[in-house]
């Protein structure tokens, strides 16, 4: 009886999803088989007992889908139960999307879907409980950000990169998350990052460079070509990842960056300082005691490469993981970061210009001012870190945002 209910529930979940490829029927059959083989159906009574009948004291939060509760199974595992609100159309779509896309996803840096439940009108998704909640709660709260020293931030950058590489290249189907941001990165008890909230994620056809879709995401993290034209590709996730990298280094939110500063955004501020050979000045003062200057400089450069205006110039997540796994060294020069609402210009790189990112680039990436790379970083690193060790003061040039 339970197996029959499980099959029926999953069939209903996958009905709304169609693909512009000939593999549609095969995908649905595969997912249905996965649902049966992995036996992910969890009885409603089990979840009632685990959450103390969804007691308000167990409520972790609420999203467009409905409330999320913390629970504990009989075997001792802690869980997070996402309960679909009966009145939420947006939540229904997000709920169905998560159940479908995460059915076969298993990676250390992606939140694990343990199972699902359908009981009358009740529909629930069950995840592993992640102890430290989301990255934004540590990074942007001044009383906790000291917990994130440079090694931990670097490990978070690397972990998120590996999680995205898995979604883009190594999962059963290519998955584009569409909403990578600090609040959708959960941290476990060892501060290992886990990408979460797949309500807006999309399967990506292998034979297409991009798909046109309804724009959905968070301001400050969405790639300009996606915001302007609805062009969605893996490079949209790369852009969002680059924003998170620069947020982790600076301790500043891109979405609420001080607009009175001499920069349009965190990305613009970082790029302008980078071009002047002063990239390390964006570093969070809290990192001063623990920072490895050359590694920080390399990550700033990677963040800027990922947020370039031209999506063809942005590296793949595979390339990012390779760059992060090596010692700091010469990597490509970033061109100007993308700003939603502005157009990017593509031009051919001069013959002999070495790059593994793309075949075209913004001409200003070749100017003499842009030669601040990880090899030159160490020269000014000591002075930069000494300056950052003191309490944050207002920059005489008005370029540093105020401490939140």
From TrEMBL:
Region (Disordered): 327-404
Domain Protein kinase: 54-330
Gene Ontology molecular function: ATP binding; protein kinase activity
Compositional bias per record (Low complexity), positions renumbered to this chain: 354-390
Key words of the record: ATP-binding, Kinase, Nucleotide-binding, Transferase
Cited InterPro entries: CR_Ser/Thr_kinase (IPR052059), Kinase-like_dom_sf (IPR011009), Prot_kinase_dom (IPR000719), Ser-Thr/Tyr_kinase_cat_dom (IPR001245), Ser/Thr_kinase_AS (IPR008271)
Keyword Nucleotide-binding applies: yes
Highest taxon of source: Eukaryota
Keyword ATP-binding applies: yes
Protein name: Receptor-like protein kinase At4g00960
Species for this entry: Herrania umbratica
Gene (UniProt): LOC110423585
């Amino acid at each position: 009886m339970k197996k029959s209910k499980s099959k029926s529930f999953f069939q209903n979940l996958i009905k709304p999803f169609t693909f512009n490829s000939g593999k549609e029927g095969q995908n649905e059959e595969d997912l249905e088989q996965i649902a049966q083989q992995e036996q992910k159906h969890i009885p409603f009574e089990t979840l009632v007992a685990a959450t103390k009948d969804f007691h308000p004291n167990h409520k972790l939060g609420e999203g467009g889908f409905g409330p999320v509760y913390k629970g504990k199974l009989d075997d001792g595992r802690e869980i997070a139960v996402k309960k679909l609100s009966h009145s939420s159309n947006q939540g229904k779509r997000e709920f169905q999307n998560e159940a479908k896309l995460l059915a076969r996803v298993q990676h250390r840096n992606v939140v694990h879907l343990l199972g699902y439940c359908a009981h009358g009108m009740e529909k629930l998704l069950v995840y592993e409980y992640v102890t430290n909640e989301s990255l934004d709660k540590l990074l942007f709260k001044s009383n906790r950000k000291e917990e994130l020293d440079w090694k931990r931030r670097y490990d978070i950058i690397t972990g998120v990169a590996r999680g995205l590489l898995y979604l883009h290249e190594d999962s059963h189907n290519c998955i584009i998350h569409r909403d990578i941001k600090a609040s959708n990165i959960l941290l476990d008890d060892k501060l290992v990052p886990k990408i979460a909230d797949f309500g807006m994620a999309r399967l990506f056809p292998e034979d297409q460079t991009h798909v046109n879709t309804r724009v959905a995401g968070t301001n400050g993290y969405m790639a300009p070509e996606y915001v302007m034209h609805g062009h969605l590709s893996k490079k949209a996730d790369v852009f969002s990842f680059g924003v998170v990298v620069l947020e982790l280094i600076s301790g500043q939110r891109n979405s609420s960056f001080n607009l009175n500063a001499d920069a349009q955004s965190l990305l613009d501020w970082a790029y302008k300082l980078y071009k002047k050979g002063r990239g390390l000045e964006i570093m969070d003062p809290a990192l001063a005691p623990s920072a490895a200057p050359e590694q920080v400089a390399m990550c700033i450069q990677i963040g800027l490469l990922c947020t370039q205006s031209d999506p063809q110039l942005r590296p793949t997540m595979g390339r990012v993981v390779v760059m992060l796994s090596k010692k700091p060294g010469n990597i490509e020069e970033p061109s100007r970061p993308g700003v939603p609402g502005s157009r990017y210009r593509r031009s051919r790189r001069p013959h002999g210009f070495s790059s593994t990112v793309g075949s075209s680039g913004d001409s200003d990436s070749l100017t003499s001012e842009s030669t601040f790379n990880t090899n030159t970083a160490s020269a000014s690193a000591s002075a930069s870190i000494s300056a950052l060790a003191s309490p944050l003061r207002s920059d005489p040039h008005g370029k540093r945002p105020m401490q939140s």
